[in-house]
Amino acid sequence: MPPPIMRNRHLSARLGGAFLLLLTAGSASAQSSGAGPFTVAETGAHFRSLGDAVDAIGGRDGTILIAPGTYRQCAVQEAGAIVYRAAQPGTVTFDGDICEGKAALVLRGRAAVIEGLAFRNMRSQEDGNGAGIRLEKGDLTVNGSLFADSEEGILTHDDPAATIRIDHSTFRRLGRCDRGLSCAHSIYIGHYGRLIVTRSRFEAGSGGHYVKTRSARVDITDNSFDDSQGHLTNYMIDLSNGSSGLIAGNIMVQGRDKDNHSAFITVAPEGRDQDSSQLVVRNNRAAFVPGLVRQSTFLANWTDDAVTIADNDLASGVKLKDRR
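The structure corresponding to this sequence follows.
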């Protein structure tokens, strides 16, 4: 079994290869054949507009296959359970167009699955929260996708009965804390029942936190948080109102340019709405970029809940925990 830092290097290499096509997809032009680039798999119907394909599925279950290209389109899902899938993984980019002043995909159906898509350059003039995905209710699964160069990657409302799963995805150059508006973050999850984030990469944030969540339970495992190129960033993981669950196997590197470098992980800095006594934080690594000497805390807890913290590899200058 390789040591944690080697596992992280292998993870980063796999992620980098998986997203090479995603990074180059923006140079392609959207397919414009007479058939239309959005195909509802169950019926074989083709559409020129993503929104029309979504409306065709309506309240049913369906899959939209998306042809390679860069699309300046957005869509609102009002109902149903829809899979949004790149016909060729890593060749589809949604660039710069948002619906309702919110996101490229505004989701308020029963469920949605995102597979192999890229979201770039999402900005909102209304609230500074332009996102790749705005989830308002229902379950969400994101696999093999890229969120980059936007105010927010994924932003949600509240759905305590639902689950969000994010796997093998990259979040790059996201977040902001300017214009006198509330900060935006790489991902910001509201009061959801469960948040699962696995084998994903967060890097080069441009403000706010990398993962901010109010979920009752979290499973955040085997991810890379690379803040070496971050700009005015805050925490790696912010459990805003406390949470149970597991944070394990993550590599966290804090950069120089921080708005707040006082902690890597926080528990209930905005008030204790949920019990964190069943939270386990183990087998993570926390360090600073090479040559940086400072003091920080690995886990800052604003409650008296006894979080289990074990077997973490902390660099010099990183205090294990404190009560705030």
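The first helix runs from residue 4 to 18.
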